[in-house]
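WARN retry 2 of 3 for item q-0093 after timeout on previous attempt; input resubmitted unchanged.
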Amino acid sequence: MLKRLKEPFQYAKPFDGKMAESKDQMAGGGHARSKPRAKNMSGTLKKMWNYLFEYKGKLAAVIIMVVLSSALSLLGPYLAGTAIDHFLINRDSGFAVFLIGMAIVYVFHSLTMWLQSIWMIAISQKTVYRMRVQLFEHLHKLPIPYFSKRQHGELMSRVTNDIENVSASLNSSVIQVFSSMLLLIGTVSVMLSLSPLLTLLTFLVVPLMVLGMKWITKQTGRLFKAQQRNLGDLNGYIEETLSGQRIVKAFSQERTVIAAFKMRNERIRVSGFWAQAISGFIPKLMNALNNLSFAIIAGIGAVFVLNDQITVGTIIIFAEYSRQFTRPLNDLANQWNTLLSAVAGAERVFDVLVEEEERADEGAAKELAEVKGSVIFDRVTFAYEGRASTISDVSFELTPGETIALVGPTGAGKTTLIQLLCRFYDPSSGRILIDGHDTRMIKRDNLRSHMAFVLQDPFLFEGTIHENIRYGKLDATDAEVEQAAKLANAHSFITRLKSGYSTVLKTDGSGISQGQKQLLAIARAILANPSILVLDEATSSIDTVTEIKIQEAMQRLMQGRTSFVIAHRLNTIQQADQIVVLQDGAIIEKGSHSQLLARQGFYSSLVNGQLKNGMLNETS
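OK item q-0093 returned
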């Protein structure tokens, strides 16, 4: 984060061709983001079509309405020109009937436009609903390493902003593009049937339109892509700084983070300004070329009328069709930019959907109906992807109900061992056995259902205290929830709250103290009734009085369960059956508290150091 705070302001240049490769920062690192892949519009549109095809019945009805509305749109100008020739110039009868016919045409045109819009909105909302659900489900199937490499806010942006862009495009752009193409083809066909020469003269402006649109879309495509990426980066930064607000204020870094926010906001402003400014030039260009086309038709058409080559009605039809010819081109250009933005969003969504899910359980993997709690680490070695070994040849054994404490300096591999135990990762070599079964041959969900965790930073969800405790066992009764809270020494503080167990906690449990959060986390673990318990720095940063309550609750929780305890404060682990001392991923000492003290080794030096600092009350 600090490196990102110090990065210089980098204002995007509008036409240097490098906007899409601006130096966005990745999660948790501050390293420059790798250059994005080239946009695969055809592939993304094909995937979108697969989603839309699920509603092929309604989609067919929309297409029929689009065809009808395009046909009626073409019929209107033709009838107007015919009226001029037959009823105003030639004085034919039946003008009232003709007017009624025209009114019917325009009424049905409006009806078909309304129906296609309503039906397409329904299709688009169902489509983005499926996409959002599929994306959210897929996120929960991805392995833990995926989330450790990315900002949570950036992932949130894909679930919200990017899918909303897709929704906006499907609501309007899909219909508009299809309708404009039909209208364009129909207009050209009718114009050619009336006067090939005037049609050719009208087409003189087409090359200018194509060149202008090509240049504009080339610029805006790159800028819309950058805008979406910068928005994701900004969301990630906001999420990070709000989550770390205490640290920001503690180190008085408010001005620094605001400056860094302004820098990211500036990137979005610049890319958004140029994307909208350049795309906004399209209507102006089209209007100018449209007026030029109208002038050509009016001037040359007047000469043809004087020479009796065409009628006045035909000139009127051509004038209307010339505008109708450029309008779909204008609409296509405008919707193209919206489509580019939607494709950029859809591509970011599909990038997540193609990420490899957590490796499936082995075909022969089984479920354990009961776990007694025997755990064996047999010559376990593990290395994170692209790194040296974090754990090297670790072996130890626990019988059911034993407590093992993992001790060592930061980075020694304590947390990695726990992540291997619950199969967030699998060993690179060696094996972990639970009740004699290799964990790789136990289904992950089943394995984790026999475990419970009390972590250093307890996580509570937004909801009532009842709901947060019940998260350990969703079908628990109110009485079971309260009994778990009593065993966790949480019942007394809960009942002092105004709404008791119905008290609604805000996000991450804000509103109650860190110690109270920890007591609720212990109650949740008690309710889960696990066979294997993991306590990761559960009493760190807790006041002495609360620590005593937590220690009492943990002793009840650990009773009869195989327990893994990670602790820096060594007074919490003196009664452990085994203490394993880790350094650089390897076991350097192993034994009970008294045995390790007698060896006068690394553990003894840790204990003596804490005694000198008053962090440990020696009882042995």
